[in-house]
């Protein structure tokens, strides 16, 4: 549910009525008060919290033994457990529990672009040490206030540009995690899933998404092993193009355009994801949006499985349509539509000869070669170097995107540079 108009109006009145707000925002307390005010009027918030508290109390007391028995059966009572489930740790009960079915696992395991060396090593690594949900820096409120908002103001003249849109959509997304099965949808489901898939693809295009792919959720690629962010097994991966002119302004965003190159895309993509989820619900099916500024669902891994992207040298995945000039979001979908298979665009063959992003990175955050990690060979961006470089330069970086030939020249021209002998799979 969206914050009520009254709550939004109170927040806006506070912002517009206090000329010293910018100074006050340097205090974490004031910023958190704004968030708290916006959260108060979310419909059903208190009821959900009370219901969750009762659930936990029930586990801790009379129902604990029964819950433990059912949980044990769910984990060890099936022959296909190793293939279809992951063990999750529940800190509230100090017990393990089974994840929902991991239907996307087989897609990843059979996708040669993940370069899996040891399947068991990979499975154990992700089960025991899930990927982080958010980078360390994004958990720091001072980083957001002193760096992100300041950069937005420098580029656009208003440090609230895009932020209210992004915050609104994030609050709604997080609230819908707890209300997914209660959200209103059409009483009759569209039974023709082929038709539904094409309607979703068409609607996504109308909302500004130039990249659309369907696949299954691989629960190894959920931040912190949090299965609640993916209440269904299917995912629609959505890619929105970033503005070329704004990228070319790097490393001085807003010099000509008056825009902070990526924030408008984040805001537009977030709103688009919500709109597409509403559209899917109008067809009678459950849907849950995940906006671009979301670390819980790893979009790049699912984009590769959905056949709309390939892994590149940098942390960015590359698409045929826009190269690295794209920001992803997604909608988790109840309808069991046919997934799109992975597609090898020969990007790795090109990147192995290019390495422009690695050479241009001002802090050496992009490794030259892949290393063995979690049972696979991969390149792992040093995100601490990457984020610290942006703070140190007091600007968005983006050199890895700006110098990429797939951004500069386009996919087809870039692929012409590969010797014909190595130019496979370019249909």
Describe this protein with a few key phrases.
single chain; 427 residues; alpha+beta; two-stranded antiparallel sheet; 20 helices; iron-sulfur
Task: Produce a short descriptive summary.
By secondary structure, this protein is α+β, with helices and mostly antiparallel strands. Helix content is 45%, strand content 10%.
The number of distinct helices, counting runs of at least 4 residues, comes to: 20
Strand order, main sheet: write it out: 3-4-8-5
Unreliable stretches covering 5 or more consecutive residues: 22-27, 77-81
Strand content: 5-15%
Distance between the termini: 44 Å
Major β-sheet annotation: 4 strands, antiparallel
**What series of H and E elements makes up the topology?**
HHHHHHEEHHHHHEEHHEHEEEHHEEHHHH
The total of beta strands comes to: 10
Domain count, please report it. 2
Average predicted confidence as pLDDT: 80
| SSE-based structural type | alpha+beta
């Amino acid at each position: 549910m969206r914050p009520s108009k009254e709550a939004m109006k109170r927040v806006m009145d506070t912002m517009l009525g206090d000329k010293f707000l910018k100074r006050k925002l340097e205090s974490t307390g004031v910023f958190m008060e704004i968030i708290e005010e916006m959260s108060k009027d979310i419909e059903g918030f208190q009821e959900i919290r009370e219901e969750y508290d009762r659930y936990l109390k029930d586990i801790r007391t009379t129902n604990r033994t029964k819950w433990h028995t059912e949980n044990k059966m769910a984990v060890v009572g099936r022959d296909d457990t190793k293939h279809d489930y992951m063990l999750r740790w529940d800190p509230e009960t100090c017990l393990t529990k089974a994840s929902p079915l991991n239907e996307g696992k087989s897609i990843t395991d059979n996708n040669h672009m993940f370069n899996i060396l040891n399947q068991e090593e990979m499975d154990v690594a992700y089960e025991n040490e899930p990927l982080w949900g958010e980078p360390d820096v994004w958990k720091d409120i001072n980083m957001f206030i002193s760096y992100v908002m300041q950069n937005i103001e420098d580029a656009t003249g208003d440090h609230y540009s895009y932020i209210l849109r992004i915050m609104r959509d994030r609050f709604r997304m997080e609230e819908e995690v707890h209300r997914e099965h209660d959200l209103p949808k059409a009483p009759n489901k569209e039974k023709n899933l082929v038709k539904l898939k094409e309607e979703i693809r068409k609607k996504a295009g109308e909302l500004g998404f130039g990249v659309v792919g369907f696949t299954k959720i691989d629960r190894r690629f959920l931040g912190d092993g949090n299965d609640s962010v993916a209440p269904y097994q299917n995912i629609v991966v959505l890619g929105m193009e970033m503005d070329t002119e704004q990228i070319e302004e790097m490393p001085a965003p807003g010099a000509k355009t008056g825009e902070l190159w990526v924030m408008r895309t984040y805001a537009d993509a977030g709103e688009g994801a919500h709109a597409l989820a509403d559209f899917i619900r109008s067809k009678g099916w459950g849907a849950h949006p995940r906006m671009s500024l979301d670390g819980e669902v790893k979009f790049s891994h699912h984009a590769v499985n959905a056949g709309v992207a390939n892994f590149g040298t940098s942390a960015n995945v590359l698409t045929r349509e826009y190269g690295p000039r794209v920001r992803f979001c997604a909608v988790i979908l109840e309808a069991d539509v046919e997934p799109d298979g992975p597609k090898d665009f020969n990007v790795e063959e090109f990147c192995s000869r290019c390495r422009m992003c690695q050479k241009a990175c001002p802090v050496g955050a992009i490794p030259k070669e892949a290393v063995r990690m979690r049972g696979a060979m991969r390149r792992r961006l040093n995100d601490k170097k990457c984020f610290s470089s942006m703070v140190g330069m007091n600007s968005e970086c983006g050199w890895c995107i700006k110098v990429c030939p797939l951004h500069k020249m386009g996919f087809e021209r870039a692929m012409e540079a590969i010797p014909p002998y190595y130019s496979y799979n370019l249909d």
